[in-house]
Write a structure and sequence with these properties.
- The model has no long low-confidence stretch (mean pLDDT 97).
- This protein has 2 domains: 5-61 and 331-431, Aspartate Aminotransferase, domain 1; 66-329, 3-Layer(aba) Sandwich (Aspartate Aminotransferase, domain 2).
- Helix 3 (66-78) runs antiparallel to helix 10 (314-329) and helix 12 (380-392) packs across helix 13.
- Strand 2 and strand 3 form a beta hairpin.
- The protein has helices at 10-20, 54-57, 66-78, 89-101, 116-131, 148-153, 188-205, 233-244, 295-298, 314-329, 332-351, 380-392, 417-431; strands at 33-37, 40-43, 48-51, 109-113, 135-139, 171-174, 212-217, 247-251, 275-278, 289-293, 357-363, 366-371, 395-396, 398-400, 406-409.
- It contains 13 helices and 15 strands.
- The protein is an alpha/beta fold.
- The chain is globular and about 60 Å long.
- Bound molecules: pyridoxal-5'-phosphate.
- Pyridoxal-5'-phosphate is lined by residues 56, 115-117, 120, 143-145, 218, 222-223, 251, 253-254, 279.
C-alpha cells in the first residue's frame, strides 16, 4: 500500500495478527475490516471497499442488513444457547421455514450445524447409516470443506490435501464435466457423455455401485473455478443414483439462497437431491448450516446417533429467519438474475478485446472469469495481478480454480446498479494489464 506507515491504522493490528494468529489462516485482502454496511467494508482508516466477495458468498443480503441485525439483537437478549439439552423456538421455526422453501416437497426433515464442512460430515454419516453402504463418489475439482473427511472429498487444489495423508478411504473421485478445459470444448453433450463414461468405468473397475452410499456434487463448482456442468449431467446423475439405490447429495453451500437466480442451483435443471446441503448465505453472516432430506430416510437414523453442541444456535437461527424474509421480500432471486445478466453481458463484451480472458461464465451472481497466458494455459499470475489491482482500487474480489486462474464475482444480491457499474469499471481497468 502506498500510504505512509504512520497514517495506516490497519498496520498495528496487522502486525499483531502476524504475531498472534496461526499463520495457516490465509486472508485474501491485507486490510482490517472494522465495520461493514450493504456492499461496502470499511477498514480501520475508514476507507470503503466495494465488496465482490461477500465473505465467500455469505453476506448475500448485504453486510449488516438492518432486519438481520434487529433479529440478532432481539434474540441475544432472550435466549442464546440450548444445545441438545432442550428444544428451542428459533430452531423449530427455521426447520419449518427451510422445509417450506425447499425446492422439492420430498425434502421435509432438517438438521442444523455450525459450518458447511460439518453439514457435509453429517450428511455422509447419515447416508452411510441409512444405506448400510460404505463408499462415496465425488468429483474432481470439488470443494466440500476442511475437516479430515471433507478434505478427503476435496480435490479442487492440491494444497487443500497435500501432507494430510492418510485421508479417509472409500472415496472414489471421477472427472467433472469442465467444458472449458475439456478436449471436447464446444460440444457439451460429448463433455457430459465422457464424464458419465468415466463413472460407468468406475463401477466396472473399482467399486460395485451397490457399495456406494452417496454421490456428492456441487451443482456449480465453487473453489473449483465457478464451473457449472453442461445441461443434462445432473439429471443423468440423478438417474444413475436411482438405478443403483445411491443417495444423491447436492452441496448448495456456495450456490444456495438465491445466488444463482433460483433459491437453489439444482432447480435450474429440476434435479431432486436425496440430501441437500446449505450454509454460507443462510444466516446473513451468522454461523449456521443445514442439511435437509426426506423424513422417510431421516427416520432410519435413530435419535442420538448424531448431534452438535452449537449447531442450530438460537441467535443464528433468528438471523436465518430474518435473512430468508429479506430474500423473499426483496425478491433477490430475480435481482440475482437481472444483475448477473447485466454484469455478464458487459464482461463478455469486454472479453472480446482482451486476449487473456478465456471465458466468462456463470449463473446469476455466481460469475467466473478464467484467465489464460499467451499459450492458452491457465494463468494464476494474471488472476492474482487483477485481484491485487482491484484491491488497490478499493474493490475486493477473490480467485478460485485448480490453478488459481479464475476471478470469481460474488457480490451482495442487494447491490445497486450504480455499485455494480462502478465495480465493472474498476475490474475492466484492472484487467487491462
Ligand atoms: C461447496 C462448499 N461446500 C462446503 C464448504 C465448507 O464450508 P465451511 O467453510 O463453512 O466449512 C464450502 C466452503 O467454501 C463450499 O464452498
Amino acid at each position: 500500500m502506498v500510504m505512509a506507515e504512520t497514517k495506516n491504522k490497519n498496520l498495528a493490528y496487522l502486525q499483531m495478527d502476524d504475531k498472534f494468529v496461526n499463520p495457516v489462516l490465509a486472508r485474501s485482502a491485507r486490510i482490517v475490516a472494522e465495520r461493514a454496511s450493504g456492499s461496502y467494508i470499511y477498514d480501520m482508516n475508514g476507507d470503503a471497499y466495494l465488496d465482490f466477495a461477500c465473505g465467500i458468498a455469505v453476506t448475500s443480503v448485504g453486510h449488516c442488513h438492518p432486519k438481520v441485525v434487529a433479529a440478532v439483537q432481539k434474540q441475544v437478549g432472550e435466549l442464546m444457547h440450548t444445545s441438545v439439552v432442550t428444544h428451542n423456538k428459533p430452531y423449530i421455526e427455521l426447520a419449518k421455514k427451510l422445509v417450506e422453501i425447499a425446492p422439492f416437497k420430498s425434502l421435509d426433515s432438517v438438521f442444523l450445524t455450525n459450518s458447511g464442512a460439518e453439514c457435509v460430515e453429517g450428511a455422509i454419516k447419515m447416508a452411510r447409516y441409512v444405506t448400510g453402504r460404505p463408499c462415496v463418489i465425488n468429483f474432481r475439482g470439488s470443494f466440500h470443506g476442511r475437516t479430515i473427511f471433507t478434505t478427503a472429498l476435496t480435490t479442487s487444489k492440491l494444497y487443500y490435501r497435500e501432507k494430510y495423508e492418510p485421508l479417509p478411504g472409500s472415496i472414489h473421485t471421477v472427472p467433472f464435466p469442465y467444458e472449458y478445459r475439456s478436449h471436447f470444448r464446444g460440444d457439451p453433450k460429448k463433455v457430459v457423455d465422457e464424464a458419465l463414461k468415466e463413472l460407468d468405468t468406475l463401477f466396472h473397475q473399482i467399486v460395485h455401485p451397490e457399495q456406494v452410499a452417496a454421490i456428492i456434487i456441487e451443482p456449480i463448482q465453487g473453489e473449483g473455478g465457478y464451473v457449472a456442468p453442461p445441461p443434462g449431467f445432473l439429471p443423468a446423475l440423478r438417474k444413475i443414483a436411482d438405478e443403483h439405490g445411491i443417495l444423491l447429495i447436492i452441496d448448495e453451500v456456495q450456490s444456495g439462497f438465491a445466488r444463482t437466480g433460483q433459491m437453489f442451483a439444482c432447480q435450474h435443471e429440476n434435479v431432486e437431491p436425496d440430501i441437500m446441503l446449505m450454509a454460507k448465505a443462510i444466516a446473513g453472516g451468522m454461523p449456521l448450516a443445514a442439511f435437509i432430506s426426506r423424513s422417510e430416510l431421516t427416520h432410519k437414523w435413530p435419535a442420538g446417533r448424531h448431534g452438535s453442541t452449537f449447531g442450530g444456535n438460537p441467535v443464528s437461527c433468528a438471523a436465518a429467519l430474518a435473512t430468508l424474509e429479506v430474500i423473499e421480500e426483496e425478491k433477490l432471486c430475480e435481482r440475482a438474475e437481472k444483475l448477473g445478466n447485466m454484469i455478464m453481458t458487459r464482461l463478455k463484451k469486454f472479453a472480446e478485446k482482451n486476449k487473456h480472458v478465456g471465458e466468462i461464465r456463470g449463473r446469476g451472481l455466481m460469475i467466473g472469469i478464467e484467465f489464460n497466458d499467451e499459450h492458452g494455459n491457465p494463468s494464476k499470475k494474471i488472476a492474482d495481478a487483477v485481484a491485487e489491482k482491484c484491491l488497490e482500487h478499493k474493490m475486493i474480489v477473490l480467485t478460485c480454480g485448480y490453478a488459481g486462474q479464475v476471478i470469481r464475482l460474488i457480490p451482495p444480491l442487494t447491490m445497486s446498479d450504480a455499485e455494480a457499474e462502478k465495480g465493472m469499471e474498476i475490474l475492466e481497468k484492472c484487467m487491462t494489464l
